[in-house]
């Protein structure tokens, strides 16, 4: 019977890391892969979460047998990464200790935009390119923007209280509120922020936005279409001022050492009493203790987040006991529209690697 190291690797998702059988299996796969001379391009998806990412990529590449897609548990990635040409990190923290083992890796990429878990410096030192998939070209930004509106409306209409009223057979309660007439502050006016502003405008809201660097008149002689949607724009130094003016604050910032914990007690205290906070970017942008404190005091009127401080989030975390908190499991960009497009982007890059190309289209190289 022919034993395929590639089909075997796909089975790794069912093994527990650290068991004797798992270690022996990994050695067998590693040895057989080294002996295999077929011109395969191998794509590694790290971990089981966001399952549609690898499932749709496998489906897209089903007529290309020269490209092999495997899904490996996070704990096993360091043991097998040396066998792969492309690594799609998903939730993996890809540090220098793992990157040094990636002997044949040509590309590290995210199934989306966020690369804060990748040691880009180490990848560069080892001659490995790092890429993300532009969100404006795949529908990912639009999907996230729609998720923000879902969270806004859920908070305004008191989604959790409505469900409780339904279970108690109560009609006409609770009294919700409209998005119409509200002031929304978009903190971080990138692709998601622009798509959000487009969708908010018909609701009759006032839109404020901040960005670290706006195009200068010299760079751009005319106002961009995104900026035309705004009632006011500001720099990063204006975030507290804009927060004080707004009924809803939406965090769209990218995660970095500069933005980690930026929504702290001082920031939330500057917000209007009873206003809402929505986060579609990364959980670490919000200071957990400050959020809980202001929910308990009633200063923060509601919290709607699609990203959490640790993921997967603890279903027993006490923050879920607040009736004015809505938390979703990082599904903002997880739509048929965006995931099909991003699977195509990964598949197309794999085919480019298979063709021997060293420059790639459809993705954004960051190093």
Offer a few descriptive terms.
7-stranded parallel β-sheet, about 35% helix, 13 strands, about 15% strand, alpha/beta, about 375 residues, disordered N terminus, 14 helices, 6-stranded mixed β-sheet, single chain
Q: Which stretches are low in confidence, meaning pLDDT under 50 for 5 or more residues running?
A: 1-21
Q: Give the percentage of residues in beta strands.
A: 5-15%
Structural class per helix/strand content?
alpha/beta
Question: What integer is the average pLDDT?
Answer: 90
Report Rg.
23 Å
Order of SSEs: HHEHEHEHEHEHHEHEHEHEHEHEEHE
Number of strands: 13
Total helical elements:
14
Identify the strand order in the major beta sheet: 8-7-6-9-10-11-12
Q: Largest sheet at a glance? A: 7 strands, parallel
Q: State the shape.
A: globular
| Amino-to-carboxy terminus distance | 44 Å
Helix content: 25-40%
Structural overview:
This protein has 367 residues and is an alpha/beta fold. 35% of the residues lie in helices and 15% in strands. The protein has 14 helices and 13 strands. The protein has helices at residues 5-11, 20-35, 51-60, 77-80, 96-99, 120-125, 140-156, 159-167, 191-200, 225-228, 239-245, 265-270, 288-297, 336-354, and strands at residues 41-46, 67-72, 86-88, 107-109, 129-132, 183-187, 206-210, 232-234, 248-251, 275-279, 300-305, 325-327, 364-365. Helix 13 links the parallel strand 10 and strand 11. The longest helix is centred in the C-terminal third of the chain and has 19 residues, at 336-354. It starts with a helix and ends with a strand. Mean pLDDT is 90; it is low at 1-21.
């Amino acid at each position: 019977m022919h034993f395929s190291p590639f089909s075997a690797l796909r089975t790794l998702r069912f093994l527990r890391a650290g068991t004797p059988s798992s270690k022996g299996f990994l050695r067998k796969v590693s040895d057989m892969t080294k002996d295999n001379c077929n011109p395969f391009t191998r794509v590694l998806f790290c971990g089981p979460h966001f399952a549609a990412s690898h499932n749709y990529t496998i489906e897209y590449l089903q007529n290309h047998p020269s490209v092999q897609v495997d899904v490996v548990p996070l704990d096993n990635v360091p043991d097998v990464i040396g066998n792969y040409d492309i690594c799609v990190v998903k939730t993996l923290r890809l540090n220098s200790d793992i990157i040094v083992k990636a002997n044949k890796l040509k590309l590290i990429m995210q199934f989306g935009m966020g690369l804060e878990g990748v040691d880009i410096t180490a990848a560069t030192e080892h001659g490995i390119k790092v890429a993300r998939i532009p969100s404006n070209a795949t529908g990912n930004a639009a999907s996230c923007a729609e998720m923000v509106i879902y969270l806004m409306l859920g908070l305004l209409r008191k989604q959790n209280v409505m469900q409780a009223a339904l279970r108690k057979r109560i009609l006409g309660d609770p009294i919700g509120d409209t998005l119409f007439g509200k002031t929304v502050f978009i903190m971080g006016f990138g692709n998601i922020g622009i798509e959000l502003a487009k969708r908010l405008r018909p609701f009759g809201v006032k839109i404020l936005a901040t960005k670290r660097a706006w195009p200068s008149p010299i760079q751009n002689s005319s106002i961009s279409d995104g900026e035309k949607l705004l009632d006011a724009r500001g720099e990063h130094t204006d975030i507290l001022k804009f927060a004080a003016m707004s009924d809803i604050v939406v965090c769209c910032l990218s995660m970095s050492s500069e933005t980690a914990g930026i929504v702290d007690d001082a920031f939330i205290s500057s917000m209007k009493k009873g206003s809402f906070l929505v986060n579609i970017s990364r959980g670490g942008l919000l200071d957990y203790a400050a959020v809980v404190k202001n929910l308990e005091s009633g200063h923060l009127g509601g919290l709607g987040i699609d990203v959490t401080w640790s993921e997967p989030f603890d279903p027993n975390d006490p923050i879920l006991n607040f009736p004015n908190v809505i938390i979703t499991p990082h599904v903002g960009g997880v739509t048929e529209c965006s995931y099909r497009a991003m699977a195509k982007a990964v598949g197309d890059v794999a085919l480019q690697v298979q063709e021997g190309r060293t420059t790639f289209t459809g993705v954004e190289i960051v190093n």
